[in-house]
Fold:
Amino acid sequence: MRLDGGAQGGDRQAADGRAGLLEELSPGLYLVRAQNSARIPYAHSLLALGDQNLLVDTGTGLDVLRRLRRSHRIHLVLNSHYHRDHNFGNWLFRGVPILAHVRDAPMLNSLAVYFRKMGILGRPDEREIRRFTMTFIPHRQGPRVRPFRGGDLFDLGGPVLEAVHLPGHSPGHCGFFHRDSRTLFSADICPDAFGPWYGHACSSAEDFASSIDRIIRLGPSRLVPAHSGPVDQDIAGILRRYQARIEERDRYIREVLRAPATLDELVRRHPIYGARIGALKLPFRFWEEVMVRKHIARLRSRGLVRKAGNRLVSV
Ligand SMILES: [Zn+2]
Structure:
């Protein structure tokens, strides 16, 4: 898309290489490195410089965003998905159009919808999770986000980005593909030690796996995840191994459930995060439980796990 209102005129600027803020991916297309090596709650951004300038995500850290704003006028902001580590800086861009996929925009515009989609309403620890959510990344409501759809093209007179709908991590999770350089900013399809993550009620392990298939079919020559560095070797192999963890979690859960266990007992075995999380602290305790419930649902639907009283057991 090209902005129809609020066009600010061309101000193509050279990348601010001296500040070490930007890493060139291809002419006009830059990775904006996040604070704290993009560990949660920070995430890398993508910047496309042209007649007008486009920024994908605002979770790099407020200092980084303020430096970026001093060196580059931003005309459009896209959010890859609703999780706050990718958009907590939206409020710095008042007056700039901000867009997210139509399925995630409602969560960005309403905290009530956000909490409902997380799946915390009515839980015994609802208040605790709410408090954690509001303080871990201090909440500051950003401007109203407008919707885009998968397949939309964003052409501001520089590198053209295509929104690629990659649901699973969240319903409206999107990557952004620069076809000319075959670079895909893949946001939280991020093949590091942490994922795949589908720990909110509105997440889906099945959709996550399908989205990985979609990326492999798309065949990017460079993958740019939001929490780790760009990958340009063996992308399909790395993604296949990452995707295989979903099935590995299924297998581990079936193994544990050879001896009948309640859901709570199963969660305490940490089938997702293993010993890394130690005591079941928030937010891992909540994410682990949500993800285990999703695995149990899929295993039961395949007839691989059944209920026996209040316990679960492998078939
Ligand atoms: Zn996320």
About this structure: The helical segments are 62-71, 105-109, 111-118, 126-136, 205-218, 235-256, 263-267, 284-301. The chain has eight helices and 14 strands.
